[in-house]
Amino acid sequence: MEQLLEILNEVNPDVDYEDCDTLIDDGILDSFDIVSLVGELNDAFDIEITPVDIIPDNFNSAEAMWAMVQRLQDN
Length: 75
Prior knowledge:
Helices cover 56% and strands 0% of the residues. The protein is an all-alpha fold. It has one domain: ACP-like (Non-ribosomal Peptide Synthetase Peptidyl Carrier Protein, Chain A, Orthogonal Bundle), CATH 1.10.1200. The model has no long low-confidence stretch (mean pLDDT 96).
């Protein structure tokens, strides 16, 4: 999770990722941020985030992203 938070802070350092659970709903992360995150997460965690995974529920919070990363690592 620590590595995920570091990646998120590189994308947008002005967000409290540990408490925010509306990153997509409130427009805090935009489509360009998501594209950047997908690439970073794929590389950092040796996973493949597919278009099916790119839904608001998976990116609305750091916890949701971490759950997605763990799920994809188990596959």
